[in-house]
Every structure is written in structure tokens, then in C-alpha cells.
Amino acid sequence: MSRLVLVHAHPDDETITCGGLMARAVDAGWDVTLVTCTLGELGEVIPAELRHLEGSDELGPFREKELAAACSAVGVTDHRLLGGRGRWRDSGMVATGEGIRAAAPADLGPGAFAVRADVDLQVHQLVEVLAEAEPDVVVSYDASGGYGHPDHVRAHEITGGAVERIDPLGARVALYATAAAHDEVARGLDALRRRSWLPLPVPPVEDLPTVPDDAVTVRIALGAARVRKLAALRAHATQIGVHDDGSEPPAFALSNGLAQPVTASEGFVLLRGPDGGLAALSA
């Protein structure tokens, strides 16, 4: 039996990038552990009826419930909050003006996950999880955090550090970063532009965080698991809107109101360790 650990910054990140992977791994009998580093306390809330949560102390606990529902949708039963509930808080972000890309704010609040002085403690906390879970495969982000959010960057840093501690020679644990294949995303965006009913603008592919298709080490075809990924996306109602009339592909949007495709596969780039860790799920 294979063991998979995923390390994500906020509730919803796990579903957007790895919802299908988690569902496929559960179906294959893998042990799946999800580690979430913060509760996304600074997230922007989309639905008008929930907007009173934005900026309040209620948003984090509400997003924790959304995360539990999303985990249930894809079948994940082992979910951990890094360091325990409320240990690390969302650091927030600022837009860079370069597409959907972000950077760290000038000032980080108390307990913010991205505070530089806390790296070693966070690595230690994640090492404790990995030592218990004994993963064959670990998934997080690349060095840019996908789109620059400081909490994603920090998740990449501590995941790499923790994996190196439990597998210093890189012989046992395969470490992957999530990756959106450029051409697949571009085809999905083109299809969305042809939807006369879609009430959202569709961005150019250059504005989205993608990688060249040939840089993707492994693609996980979602197949029927995409239905469960869509259910998990809907569970994150404060952060994600899902638009699906049965056309291919379905669409989702974040608080920026830009339509993105829910592609038929999820991509991953091997960063360290033995190749082939996710190969069994790629068939």
C-alpha cells in the first residue's frame, strides 16, 4: 500500500490543485494524509450572504468546516492542521499587477505562517507528521508557490526541508510540486470563451500560473473522480464558484471573478526522490 501526504497552505488549495489526485489515491487504496498550514483567515469571501464573515474571527472556523466537507467529498479521512488548530494564521497577500500573481504584504500579523523566524519550528512540526505517516509520496508547491502567495512559498520551503530530514539521500520519498500544464489550460480557456452563457470573463493563459507541458513529470487523469473534485470545489463556497452545465470543461472562479477550467487531469513535477511515485495513478 502506498502512502501520500499533501501539504497545502489554506483550505481550498488542496482541492483546486489535487482534488482529483486525492480521490484517485483513495480509490486505489492509498493512505492519504492532508496537512493544511492555516485556516485562510484573510480570504476574500465571494457569496453576498456569507460576506459578513470576511475579516472576522468567524471566517477561519467556517473555512475549516468547508475543508472537512471537501475532504469528505474526495474520501480523505486523515486531515491535520500544522501545529494544531490556530497555531499558524493566513499571512495575506498583495497583487503584483502581473496576472494572477501575488507577493507578501509589507507587514505580517502575529502568528502569520510566512514569518521568517518560524521556519525551523514549522519544519519540525511537519517532520513529526511525516515520521508518523511514513509517506512514499509528498506533494506541495514549487519554489514560487504556484503564483507567489507567501504562504504557498513557505509551504514549499518547509515541505522540502521536512522531506530532506526524513529521507536525506532522496532514495525513498518522492517529492512533487503541483503544476498546471500550459497547453491543457489554454485549450480549456478557449473552450470557456465559446460559452455564451458563462457570466464571467476568461483570462489569457499568460495570466495564469502554468508550466510547459513537457515539464510535467506525471499527469493524473481524473476520469470519474472529477465529479468528486467538483463536489469538493463546491464545498469551499466562501472561496470558489463552480459553473457546470455539463459542457466540457466545467469552470470555477475565485474572488477575482475570472473563469478557469477544471481540466481533465492534474499535473505534477518531480522535485526530489525516486521517479515513478505517482506513476501507478497515471494509467
TrEMBL record:
It comes from the Bacteria. Its EC number is 3.5.1.103. The keyword Metal-binding applies. One of its GO terms (molecular function) is N-acetylglucosaminylinositol deacetylase activity. InterPro entries: GlcNAc_PI_deacetylase-related, LmbE-like_dom_sf, Mycothiol_biosynthesis_MshB. It holds the Pfam family PIG-L. Keywords: Hydrolase, Metal-binding, Zinc. The keyword Metal-binding applies. It is an enzyme of class 3 (hydrolase). PANTHER family: 1D-MYO-INOSITOL 2-ACETAMIDO-2-DEOXY-ALPHA-D-GLUCOPYRANOSIDE DEACETYLASE (PTHR12993:SF26), N-ACETYLGLUCOSAMINYL-PHOSPHATIDYLINOSITOL DE-N-ACETYLASE-RELATED (PTHR12993). This is N-acetyl-1-D-myo-inositol-2-amino-2-deoxy-alpha-D-glucopyranoside deacetylase. It comes from Actinomycetospora aurantiaca.
